[in-house]
Specification:
The radius of gyration is 26 Å and the shape is elongated. It has 13 helices and 12 strands. By secondary structure, it is an alpha/beta fold. Helices cover 43% and strands 14% of the residues. About 2% of the residues have low confidence. It comes from Devosia geojensis.
């Protein structure tokens, strides 16, 4: 059996005040004299009284909880964002419930259903697919506050996210500007319909008059360091190997960097490497890694502010708004040598 639940009546019996007086005192009502309120609060503490949040939410129609759905808890960027969101919401009096879809659409739908059953006030979601969003649009149509943390401008749902297309373009444009003409890409987003980084890569090639070469595109079938290592192995084993590589995240890029070390290639002299997200390990890699910066704090601040704006909206939600953050490229030794551009 669990511990017995302490009720307002138990505090009333202990102090001799009415249940109504106890209730008002614990809610900080100014009608209750401070001396009386102190006696009641002390009795509540001694009895280990906890407010019934379920009952309170039935009255206020708020649970003061927000659901956060991640695609992969092992992704360093998502872990950092989750921590920042939890802290930002706590400062505003909200608790955060976490779920991970593991990049599985059905798991994502189940997580959303669980959050709905818990009656969260709103949700922040990293969707598995940036384009398979019908189940999330359905939430929006039901007037449920939701903000995506990855999306395209035509998502039809509120979103705050890094402009991945622009970020990838910047990284590849930098590689072109430092003299590279055969640039490979390690990116698994194609299978999920997450095309932004690949599109940014192609956009930079086209702008420079360079051909798109399918043999220079490798799907790592994952997002980890070891997946990046073996993707680099495939890329560099093909005829006409690239002189530069753009990886869709820093874990993949670090795996590619490890492959060069194991195979005696110099970075950036023999092959240049650029990643995406600018995780802590990127700066401290054996060869510090050029990377597109993921503005964790800015994404968090804007997304939480927008979600709470929706949560506190009376009546129908306003038209959805998508905010794309133009990212900075952090250039380090993995792609740049003095005098190379």
């Amino acid at each position: 059996m669990g511990r017995p639940v302490v009720r307002l009546k138990d505090i009333a019996d202990k102090t001799g005040f009415s249940v109504n007086t106890v209730s008002l005192a614990l809610r900080g009502n100014p009608r209750i004299p401070e001396e009386t309120a102190n006696v009641i609060r002390e009795a509540a503490r001694s009895l280990n009284y906890l407010p019934n949040q379920v009952a309170k939410s039935l009255v206020s129609r708020e649970t003061k909880t927000i659901g956060l759905v991640l695609t992969d808890i092992t992704n360093p960027t998502l872990t950092k964002v989750a921590q920042a969101i939890e802290m930002a919401l706590a400062e505003r009096g909200y608790s955060t419930l976490f779920a991970t879809s593991n990049n599985d659409l059905e798991e994502e739908k189940r997580a959303i259903a669980v959050f709905r059953s818990r009656q969260v006030d709103g949700m922040l979601i990293y969707p598995r697919s940036h384009r398979d969003l019908d189940h999330i649009r359905e939430l929006r149509r039901a007037n449920h506050p939701v903000v995506l943390l990855v999306a395209d401008p035509d998502a039809g749902v509120d979103a705050v996210c890094i402009d991945e297309r622009r970020g990838a373009y910047r990284a590849v444009r930098h590689l072109i500007d430092t003299g590279h003409k055969r640039i490979g890409i390690i990116d698994g987003g194609q299978r999920l319909g997450n095309l932004e980084k690949r599109e940014g890569y192609v956009m930079a090639l086209e702008e420079a008059g360079l051909p798109f070469t399918p043999a220079l595109v490798v799907d790592p079938h994952g997002h980890s360091v070891i997946r990046g290592y073996w993707a680099m192995d495939r890329l560099m084993s093909a005829p006409g190997r690239p002189t530069a590589v753009f990886a869709a995240n820093d874990s993949l890029a670090i795996g590619a960097l490890r492959w060069t070390q194991k195979n005696g290639l110099r970075v950036p002299e023999d092959v240049a490497i650029a990643g995406f997200d600018n995780i802590e390990f990127a700066e401290h890699a054996a060869t510090p890694l050029t990377s597109v910066n993921y503005e964790t704090q800015l994404v968090t601040d804007l997304a939480v502010s927008r979600l709470l704006e929706l949560v506190t909206t009376d009546g129908s939600l306003p038209d959805p708004r998508v905010t794309l953050i133009d990212p900075e490229l952090i250039v380090r030794e993995s792609s740049y040598r003095p005098g190379s551009a």
